[in-house]
Inverse folding.
């Protein structure tokens, strides 16, 4: 094991992860999520995150359909979708996605179709952005493990 | 002294969201509980062996005697509030109305902070109300409630093993010890690898031996 390489990768990982918090992509709940992963369940975070992104995709599609025709918008359905999305983004620590959901709910409550459409677009953008970021993060993790190192536990306050 | 050879606490988790089920399952496992998850209140009742009406056609149904025929020993039920069909509140009521199961502690989870909802649930007999997202630290509050039922059952019927059809795993290869501690202290069991058995209430992160802790790189955001 090349300890220099491992140390370098670990540093990279740490810096990247911290930046994701600093830029508001992630919040403390992501830290909680990482706590649930251990030697017995090394893929837990990746699995949960993957489930979350699948949910995002599905919900965004169905809400898009509900918002599709101006004369017959099913706001109940949209509200239900936003509620789910807000819940899961909150559980995962996906801060930006969650924040969009808050605005989204407000638009839904007053039956503002235009507002909802804008929020829908934003949610779509945010989850895809986060997905890319986390893919890069998990990639770094893999590189560390392949180089024989361990993934640092980082305390973010 | 209070040394008991113990099977793990078995929790029944109810949530209609797959995502949330996965989360609560892991949280509970990490807190050393055995977990069964179901996606609805009616499935929860079914699992307990408490039938809803008109289900005699189902060949897989457990026998319909309503009183003491409990298929599985459950130490706690944790349920989402908002579910289609039977809500968590409805489930809570059903459990508390049943002679056989009213002693099982019930905890409600919700993503919404509605004080009226919370007090309604607590009044109906819920032990705790957790706001989602549920954290590991929240689950430490469950141990005292589960301990009560465990101790009660041990004293009522020490030979209960024979009656249960499905029994939580009894860890015979690793003699487990429960120390009965005064309130506000807990014992947590690590079923897998480590030897340390006892944790104070504040510390909820399990010792992660293979990962070096970079305490000097604590970074403030």
């Amino acid at each position: 094991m090349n300890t220099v390489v491992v140390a370098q990768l670990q540093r990279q990982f740490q810096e990247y992860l911290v930046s994701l918090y600093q830029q508001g992509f992630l919040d403390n709940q992501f830290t909680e999520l990482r706590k649930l992963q251990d030697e017995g369940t090394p893929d837990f975070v990746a699995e949960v995150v993957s489930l979350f992104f699948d949910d995002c995709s599905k919900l965004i599609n169905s809400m898009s359909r509900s918002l599709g025709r101006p004369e017959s918008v099913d706001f109940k359905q949209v509200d239900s979708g936003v509620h789910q999305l807000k819940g899961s983004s909150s559980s995962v620590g996906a801060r930006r996605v969650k924040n969009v959901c808050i605005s989204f709910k407000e638009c839904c409550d007053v039956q503002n179709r235009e507002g909802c459409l804008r929020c829908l677009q934003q949610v779509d953008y945010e989850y895809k952005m986060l997905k890319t970021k986390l893919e890069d993060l998990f990639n770094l993790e893999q590189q560390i493990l392949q180089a024989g190192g361990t993934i640092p536990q980082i305390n973010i306050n | 002294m209070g040394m008991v050879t113990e099977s793990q606490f078995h929790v029944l988790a109810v949530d209609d969201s797959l995502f949330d089920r996965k989360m609560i399952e892991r949280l509970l496992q990490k807190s050393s509980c055995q977990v069964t998850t179901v996606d609805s209140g009616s499935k929860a009742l079914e699992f307990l062996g408490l039938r809803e009406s008109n289900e005699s056609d189902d060949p897989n149904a457990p026998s319909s005697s309503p009183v003491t025929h409990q298929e599985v020993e459950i130490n706690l039920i944790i349920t989402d509030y908002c579910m289609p069909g039977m809500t968590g509140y409805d489930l809570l009521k059903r459990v508390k109305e049943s002679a056989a199961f009213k002693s099982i502690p019930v905890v409600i989870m919700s993503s919404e902070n509605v004080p009226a909802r919370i007090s309604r649930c607590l009044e109906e007999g819920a032990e705790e109300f957790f706001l989602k997202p549920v954290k590991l630290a929240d689950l430490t509050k469950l141990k005292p409630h589960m301990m009560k039922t465990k101790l009660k059952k041990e004293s009522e019927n020490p030979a209960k093993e024979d009656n249960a059809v499905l029994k939580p795993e009894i860890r015979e290869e690793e003699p487990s010890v429960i120390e009965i501690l005064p309130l506000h202290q807990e014992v947590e069991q690590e079923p897998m690898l480590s030897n340390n058995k006892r944790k104070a209430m504040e510390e909820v992160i399990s010792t992660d031996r293979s990962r070096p802790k970079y305490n000097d790189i604590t970074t403030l955001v």
Observations:
- Chain B has six helices and seven strands.
- The two ends of chain B are 47 Å apart (CA to CA).
- The CA atoms of residues 7 and 168 of chain B lie 6 Å apart.
